[in-house]
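Quick illustration, no need to memorize.
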Amino acid sequence: MHGGTSVASFKKTATGWRADVFKKGIRCSKTFRAKREAVAWSNQIEYEIEQGHHDTGAAPPSATMYHILERYRDDVSPRKRGARWEVIRLNQMMRDPWLADVKLSDIGPRHFSAWRDKRLKEVSGSSVNREFNLLTHACKLAWREWQWLKEHPMAGVSRPPENKPRDRVITDAEIDAYLEASGFSFTAPPTTVLSRVGAMFLFASETAMRGGEICKMRKTDIDFNKRVVYIPETKTGVPRWVPLSTKAIKILNHVIDYTKGTPTVFSVTARQRDALSRKIMKKAGLDGINFHDTRRTALTRMSQKFGPMELAKISGHQDLKILQSVYYAPDPSDLVQKLD
């Protein structure tokens, strides 16, 4: 690239239009809802670079918390496995005037305390804590690396208490009701996405695998001879092997007979699973449970056959305390029987 020659490109993304500008060795990018906004921005950036007024690291004039959230969404979140969740939360925060409209010159603990208290009236303490972590990291980057802030504005802001760990174990009757509402049956091919979500629910109840892991599972990850499935990408970042029960193998064979040739075993996206599982729950009249409860259900059942270290290997938990307090919920009567 020579002299003032510039290249501006525009790409459609899940959240709008991404503009990329490269001029005089300076590269900039930003995402907008509309393409015309992306074009206008790229023209402005090109002009600033040409005039020598563009500072790639400087905060925009009269910058607000919105700009920190925006830069984090565009430059940091896409590099993470949980990018989809972060982008959704950041977009939500960017629409919230309690934070987004506050100038960086004024932002401080009182604003985050007010935001925290407001969010606690809308969602659980655990949900607020996940968003709190996201905000903390964004502010830390803006303070230490981007130098948009003179100090960390969340220092001293207390976190809300975590929710009491869920101890729900799904009963066989509830699993049957879920399968019936989904239309999944071993006597018919799983031709609908709804029925394959039912198959995923049953498979999760057998394996303790996370919903996201099941969505990404490919046929090449499965060793039918050894009855194990390999999970290359996990929440903890450590790959693992999961043993497969006879019933889990039966589910896989039944589903693969229909989905063979597709990139993933169940041919269901994470978004489809989330939405359709809620639909199935409502149709089946199942209150107080969610898809992730299958993980606790499976581990509780497996605990009758495996010890804590073996369970941790299967579930992928690095911390046995979390496995014990959150995912292992044995019936006290079962423990009494083991004494005899």
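The mean pLDDT is 86.
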